[in-house]
Each structure stands twice: as C-alpha cells, then as structure tokens.
Please model this.
Amino acid sequence: MIPYGKQSIDTQEINAVSEVLKSDWLTQGPTVPTFERTISEYCNANHAIAVSNATSALHIACLALSLGPNDILWTSPISFVASANCGLYCGAKVDFVDIDPISRNISIQKLQEKLRLAKQNNSLPKILVAVHFAGRPCDMHAIGELSTRYNFSVIEDACHAIGGTYGKQAIGSCEYSDITVFSFHPVKTMTTAEGGVATCRSEEIKNRLERLRSHGIDKQSVRHNEPWNYEQNELGYNYRMSEVHAAIGVCQMKKLPGFVDRRQYLFDRYQKRLAELDVKLPVEGESSFSAWHLFVIELANSETRLHCYQFLREHSIYTQVHYIPIHLQPYYQRLGFKLGDFPVAESYYQKALSLPLHPELSDDDQDTVIEVLAQALS
Ligand SMILES: *Cc1c(COP(=O)(O)O)cnc(C)c1O
Model:
C-alpha cells in the first residue's frame, strides 16, 4: 500500500519519548521551551508558542488579534475547514476570497477587488488567514501592503509550509504577518503526533497567546503575601503541548532539512515524469521556495479524476483530494454560502488529486505511482 502522506519516525523519537516518560515532567517542563526556541530560531521569529494542534493555534491567534462578534475573517475556500472555523469560534463572520488557478492560493486581484468593495460597504475584514496551499507561499508582500492600506491583521496558515522561504525569510518569520501557524499532525511535513505552533514578532501578542493557551491565567503572582497566588485575567483554554509531544518535535526539527530535500527531490521527479501526461502540474512561485507538502495534479474533468482515484486505489495507491471547498460544506451552506460563490475554487476542486508525497516514499514506489497513473489515463 502506498499512502499519500506518512510520518517519518525512528529510534531517535522513540528514545526521546522514553526519556521524557522517565523524567519528572510530562507536561510544563523544559522540553516545550526547547522546542519553541528551536522553531523560533529556525524561522527567525522572535517568539514561538507551542500548542496542542494547529486548530487551537488558529483559535488563540484570532483571539490574540482581538477578533470577536461583529468582526469579519476572510480566508481561502481551498483549505482545511480549520482555517475558517477559527473565526466562527470567536463569534465572527467568515467569508472567502476565491483562489488563483495557478498558485491555488488566494487570488491577490480578487482580494484587492473584494477589499475595495468591502471598504465602500463598511464590511472590511479584521483578519485575513492566508493559507500557503501545498507549501507554496502566498504573495506575502502584496498581502502585507493591502493589510496596511485596509488595516487588517494577517495570520499565515502555514500548516503545509514549514521549511519554505518567502524572499530571504523562512516561512514563520512573520515579516508580513502578525502570527504564523504550523501543524504537526502526522501527515504534515514534520510531526509531534498532534501539535501546533504559533510564531510572532510582537512581545505583546506572544504574552496574549501564552495566557490564552493556559486558561487566561498569568503565571506570576503579584501578591507578596500570597505566594501561591495566580490570576485569571481573561477566558482562556488548556491548549498546551505536552513534554512527550515536544520531545518528538525536537527530534523532527533536526530532520526537517532532510525531509524538505527528499520532498523536493520527489517533487522534481514527478514534474519531469508527468510532463507528458494530460495533467495540470503544480507551479513554483516567484521569489519564494516551496517546501512542498502536497503534489496536486488537476485532471481533465471530474469523471477522469474519479477514474484515476479508483484505478490507483485498485493498485493499492491511496490518493486524496485537497480540499472540498469550505463554503460547500453543509455547515457553511447553512450559513448562506452556495455553489457558484467561488467558481475558480469549485472548478479546481472538480479536477484536483493529491499524489503520494512524503519522505518515506521510495523512488520505486514513486515510479509505480507514475506508471499506474499513466495506465489510468491511457
Ligand atoms: C492540518 C491543517 C490544519 C489543522 O491542523 P491540526 O494540527 O490538525 O489542527 C489547518 N489548516 C491547514 C491548511 C491544514 O492543512
């Protein structure tokens, strides 16, 4: 069986987890801060806050940027539902910006048009969640300029994009955004089993994220006559990452450059060998480096896509579709979205198929995927 994604774990992680289990600290010990430091240094961000998963990171990122009822959050319809749900958790309204058919990221032109209209209608977003789809960075320079002109905050949903760069900076540096969020779910580029991180530059945002991660409680007591005292100053959550998960993350961070290289190698191989088939291939962005997390091809139409999915599956090759447009999920349709709202995303969805791509995929297995796909299309 060849899965579309798979974690890469060996004795290093197993030993690191054993060490934590034998130690005094299963949670709130020294390993989480070590993991956070590793990430913030790698990304050249001032701060990294480790949490239970990227969904909780997105939630407290929105809260740290003061998203609330009467506010509006925009994101891409071609993402995992979590990119939009975070706005709803805060009681805000969610809306989408259609994608660009080449980058498959939010279309900058559509974003400009929608912002111009929103300004006239007094319905500007408070937050834009920019999703680096498949690992290809969004045009952050343009998004940064628009965020200044129209006064909205930017969260980078970089769940696909750790290891990539934008301009001279690593994804996660927050050069053009307020907060960047990574996921360490096992199918992502690196894993902590479950886990996520939010990076930021601002100390104030970092303090808010830390407080929201842990019940809204401030760590330091200010009352000298009550040294046990702690103060809850706002409503927070328990979104902490455990020491066990962080220990896996510390090992994975050492392997990240190797993971990215292997993915790049497999990506280049797919590009070369699929060039002759009747499929639309992913395109590398300008002035950025994509740490490819997904290899998404587009077939001629939805019938061909279904045929390829089933044909590959009969040959024990498991592909996936990223993603069903969020606005077409029944829950979002009940909020008023409908087919036809974001036509480029919908057309992309009809044809998209993610081929297996992960560091454990051997050259031979990749050759099998390519051959079987060619058969399916012949
Ligand atoms: C995986 C993913 C998430 C959610 O990550 P979790 O760690 O599973 O909560 C959010 N956004 C995108 C784009 C993702 O791929």
Remarks:
- The pocket of pyridoxal-5'-phosphate is lined by residues 53-55, 79-80, 82-83, 131, 157, 159-160, 183, 185, 196 (CB under 6 Å).
